Amino acid sequence: MSKATGRRKSRELALQMLFQLDMGKQDPAEVRRTFWSERMDLDEDVRAFADDLFDIASKRAEEVDQIIVRNANWRMDRMAAVDRNLLRTGVAECLGHPETPRPIIINEALEIARRFSTPESVTFINGVLDSVARELPEVKKSRATKKQSLPRAKNS
Prior knowledge:
Radius of gyration: 19 Å
Strand content: under 5%
Number of domains: 1
Shape: globular
CATH architecture: Orthogonal Bundle
CATH class: Mainly Alpha
Distance between the termini: 51 Å
CATH topology: N-utilizing Substance Protein B Homolog, Chain A
Helix content: 55-70%
Largest sheet: none
């Protein structure tokens, strides 16, 4: 599985866990336990990234929801459950992985929305996450620009 495919799968799994947390009104630890008990055969990297997004979204739920409401101009309870939890996944990734380019986060969310939601929702999610991306700019990865020079061999 490529890294991009694995990341998409992780985002979908995080969405599903957040949906279960939202609709089942369960404790995050209980959601995690029951969710993963049914999915033992996943790649560890896929599971780790999904868990990370779920942790960020659930532990910083108030902050995540405030960011969404501020940028959507809609109350959370008025949004479709899939949409609000997909937005939570995207905002959690913006907060917890500021080095991930915002267009990637948005495009991934849109692809997942096309699979799990309605065409109108795709437009809504795009607008909200685009606004969030302007509010929470990405942190560029630092790259070593100086090349270390190797000692030259002496001519004998």
